[in-house]
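Researcher: Last one for today. Full complex below.
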Amino acid sequence: MTLARRRFDALIIGAGGAGLNAALQLANANLRVAVVSKVFPTRSHTVAAQGGVNAALANVFEDNWHWHMFDTVKGSDYLGDQDAIEYMCREAIPTVYELEHNGVPFSRLDNGKIYQRAFGGQSQNFGGAQAARTCAAADRTGHAILHTLYQQNIRARTHFFDEYFGVELIRDSEGAILGALTLEIETGEPLLIEAKTTLLATGGCGQVFRTTSNAHINTGDGMAMALRAGVPLMDMEFFQFHPTGIAGRGMLITEGVRGEGGYLVNKDGERFMERYAPNAKDLASRDVVARAIVTEVKEGRGCGPNADHVLLKVDHLGEDIIAKRLPGIRESSKIFAGVDPAVEPIPVFPTAHYVMGGIPTDRLGHVVVPASDGSEQIVPGLYAAGECACVSVHGANRLGGNSLLDILVFGRAAGQQIIDHLKDDPEHKTMDETAVEQAVARLTRWEQPGEGISVRELRDEFRKVMEDHAGVFRTDDIMSEGVAKVKALREKLKDVRLGDQSKVFNTARIEALELENLIDIGMAIVLSALERKESRGAHSRPDYTERDDANWLKHSVYFKEGDRLDYKPVQTKPLTVDTFPPKPRVY
Amino acid sequence: MKFFVYRYNPDVDTAPHMQEYDVEVTRGMMLRDALMEIKRQDEAFAFRHSCGEGVCGSDAVNVNGSNLLGCTTPVSELKEPVNVRPLPGRPVIRDLVVDMSQFYQQYRAVKPYLIHKDPLPEQEILQSPEDRDKLDGLYECIMCGCCSTACPSFWWNPDKFHGPQALLQAWRFLADSRDQATEERLDALEGPYKLYRCHSIMNCVEYCPKSLNPTKAIGKIKELMLKHSI
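Model: Here's the assembly. Have a good evening.
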């Protein structure tokens, strides 16, 4: 069989906010760019972001990017790289204006400016009064942004490969990335896309957990492709559990609900966040609120017949605010929880939401591999942006409203960087046919006939293991067992067989490839978590309750080969301002 | 609960057939959950789905004659026997997966992006809350296709008639105080097909899972066209 091949200047895998913002830069610069997405672009999970995007526009209260930077560094529990955080917070302002110019239907203030709401972890003046920094389009900001970016890419005539699955990166013997093997889902035919530059923008991996706010498609494909190409994943132990998922279901109820004045109560009707975060209360950082909810339930103060959730009270805001600012969550609450928040409180419990870790990059989007001497090696031809990347701006805990910001700022930065690289009009490197054969083998593996374990069975088992062994609270015993179980499941993967060998739109085949990705990432999470013997941000260990800056103010770096862990220093020096040194983190 | 599901795999089937599945109903089960359960029983069954909360627009299907989203439809609301079919009028790729290319082409044809010709300000383009309110009920479209594939005019002329989804988006930009391409947009809608094939049958309104109203938007465009021609 001859393998179909196409050639482009730039290949982008993933069509969420990061991929589309990068694509827009490239298409506007008249470069040949291919965007590969396993779903039609507007189905990407950016569409589900609700609350908004942070930028110190100061439309509501006085604000500046330096305060935003302080909040982000503190929110990261000092694990974020301060050069990248400074860059992001500065760039936030022009980025949001550019989005608005592109057509995003932001909600408006009376003076015609963009509406901004309060969100968790935001302050004025380095830890002072609550800020209002989150630019919102009602509670459908991600949808508004994703559709706008797709629309602008239509204008710019970006070349889309819709419903193509990214299978494997092609890396030559010198370590350069030459493109990727993809699979056209409709026909079941492989397509090799050769590219001078490849950007991974494949989003998160929330599907590693059983209860998650993440979509079915969030299987960390780009992260796993990077791992298999010899690139490590950084800080994977830091996984954010969003405090307010709909109890028992996992769908997200935006932090914007609390930003608009909603609050949490336990079975006694007590506003328990006052005990955990006396100042910020319900608008403390997400890790703090998620732990508080789990603790309330564990200590017997949960609500409902099984005492397994708490309640989010909204009705006091009144019909008008709810209809105007929170129409989407009202709809979701009615459908999935059977309650109208204008009348009754919403039952909520933490849900797996966001991975702070990912493919290590510099702040320009280059994928970098930390070398043992503390320096970094750029992987030639490879870029990453968005949730699949780790710049790192979120460190150990991401602030609400900083995720849309991250994907937009670093998607654009990667796009600009790729343009700069292509300006010199480099040649396509010679294709490495051995690497291509290895990539194709990943597909043919699933053509093995015979009986075996089903993809579904192993996927269900794996996601349960991750939920039980890498959740909100983590002890040595629980995680050691988790590592052993994930290793056993990884072995079992060899015995999984596809019953359906047909070609056309074979979603079972896609789910098999996704399962391999999930398990590779699960291993990165449990191993990195087991080794980090401290509590920092979202990584909370009852057996090591304190943050340990002397030993652990460093990034974890996991390599698939040999399941090896390494560490790299945190960049504590910003670009132009003074360092924010680690301090006790109280809200 | 019994489900009869449309099955067609071009690799092995010569003709489509309805296949029966038994699904144990759990509390709060949505149609998407039931379809995922069916896929557990039969991995060869194919359907699109992703977010599970009605925002990505992947899992529009036809159930007992109505277009709806699998993930926001409780199975308790469905009448037995439950017949699940692909969206009507579109070529079937496999099982519940249809070819939506013409639907997307019609969307692209209305230039669904903001056109602002004046020099851009350094900050945001100002827009009053009242002007912004005009976009409510328009921008929330998730492109699931429930409306256009329920529209007889679109069944007949999917290559020429824009269909309710694309026309809703045409109005979304005409209604935006920041957009400065009204003339071109209206000129492009001239002719007997693109806009005027809408005969206000209102299936689109009935089936929109986001409660949007394309017929009303089309009416607004027609009004503006009339003013424009005078």
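Chain A has a mean pLDDT of 96. The two ends of chain A are 61 Å apart (CA to CA).
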